[in-house]
Structure formats: structure tokens, C-alpha cells
Description:
Oligomer: single chain
Structural class: alpha/beta
Radius of gyration: 17 Å
CATH class: Alpha Beta
Order of helices and strands: EHEHEHEHHE
Largest sheet: 5 strands, parallel
Number of helices: 5
Strand order of the largest sheet: 3-2-1-4-5
Distance between the termini: 21 Å
CATH architecture: 3-Layer(aba) Sandwich
Shape: globular
CATH superfamily: HUPs
Amino acid sequence: MFRRILVPTDGSDLSNGGVKAAIRLAEENGAAIVLLHVQPVYQPPVVAEVPVADVYSQDEYEAGAKQVAAKVLADAQALADAASVPCKGVTELDSSPYEAIIRVARDEACDLIFMASHGRRGVVGLLLGSETQKVLTHCKIPVLVYR
């Protein structure tokens, strides 16, 4: 049914549960997984009257972001490897995670996006504007929401 499944992950417990469920789905369908970790782009410090502690250069920020992404993706990759599910990891620096998710799904020819959701409803969910909701609203590729 599905051949390539995009699985965005941020390394949280919620996201890791989604990764495990996506691996089971891939295993059952003989599909491959594309793991995606999106980090925000570097924001240069603004001029302030009060000294700002721990100001990083763009290079330092990007090196740290790559380290975090490598750890998150390695942990998820290990789960896929244990289940013998083919898996590729992708890291993106983007200020709009939902746009990165849609772009990578398209670029990697994925036929499903598998996303974990916090499950908040009503005004709280609306105000938070989850990335899952944004992907559902703007994407033409099927999206499976795991709660």
C-alpha cells in the first residue's frame, strides 16, 4: 500500500511513540521510512541594552543543531534497523517546520506522512496551531495522524 513513509521526529516521547508506530506500519507494508528532523534557522541576536549571555555565532548554532539532529535521527534509525525497515535520515534547518515536512515529503517521493499529535482540542489546540494541523491543511500527500 505505502512504499515510502515520511516520519518527522523531534526526539520527544510523543514523537518517539510515533516513530515506533510508523516503523510497525512500514514493516507490515514492506515500506521504507524517511526520518526528518527540523531545526529552526539561526536568529541573530538583537541589539539590547542588557548584555545577552550565551550568544552563539551562526556556525556554532548550526553545529549544535546538527549534533542534536544526529542524536535524534540515530536513536530513531536504531529502532528502524532493529525491525529491518529501510530508513534514511534527513535534517533540515527551516523556520517553518510544516513547510519543511511537506517539501521533504515531496522531494523524497513519499506517499504518506506519519505524524504524532499531542491531541489537544478546542481553543487550546487552535491557539497552539500545531505543525500537524498545518501539514494537514496545506499538504496534498496523505497524512496519518498518530495519537
